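Practice set, problem 2.
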Amino acid sequence: APYEKKYQDAKANFETDMERFKAAGGEVQAGKRKAKREKKKKDPDAPKKPVGGAYGIFVSENRDKIFKSLPAGSRVSEVSKLAGKQWKEMSAEAKAPFETKYQAAATAYKKAIEAYKASAGGGGDEDEDEDEDEDEDEDE
């Protein structure tokens, strides 16, 4: 109840201040909300970025095999969990082919996006943070 008294005091103080403001000729306006920022539309013709790093390539190549090894009626999340477990248990040598495939896909994407931006398609601001994302993916 101590906050109840503080609330009542603050409310009374506000009301007296508001009456003084109106008496002095002030006008109360409705609060204005900021307009929602419109989402940038993606060009469907733009090249697709390779996602998930080397792990993403590993999962896309082995998803069917992993799914078949699970009992019938398994959820997709169980496939992801098992794939993650297998990826963590793999040695660096076993991961190397997937990493080289990802590097090849990343360089192909860079070339494709540069060609796309050079042509009539891109406005130059389509994918500014592409280098940052690649560095994150390599750590996986």
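Problem 2, part (b): a different protein.
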Amino acid sequence: GEDASLVHKGCFLSLPGSETQVYHQDGVHLNKKTHKPCYAINVFIPLVDCTMSNGPTEFCLGTHYLGYENFIKEQVYTPCVSAGTPVIFDYRLGHRGLRNYGQCVRPVVYLTYSSVASGKEFRDSVNFSRKRYHKLGDIAEKPLSREERAQKRRRQVT
């Protein structure tokens, strides 16, 4: 609706040979006594077709309800959708990425939306803590400029 706000975005990769993740929920219930409506949703958009061999995401249906958070094998659902097809789910729904038996990376764009209640939007300070992530500049070398690449080619030729 009109009160939706994009609060997190990014991309994750399921690399060839990656193991099945531990079953988890991205968000917890904000009230532990009474079940409340959804306060945030995830949108997963796979950039390649999802198959059972390339490690799709498995969901445990009903686990977003307060008191029903436990993994029950009989309640799992694994959507194998085509590239570009969004999978939308409650932030509290239990899920896990399955093992990637394939030879290719399975990239997925994720978007997290939250409703803005009373002018205040939800922020996940557990999964998206500044302490947990590094800036890309801290872990990757700065790319060479066009001029530096040209100089490097000239040195290689001589």
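Answer key, part (b): The two ends are 62 Å apart (CA to CA). The helical segments are 136-139, 146-157.
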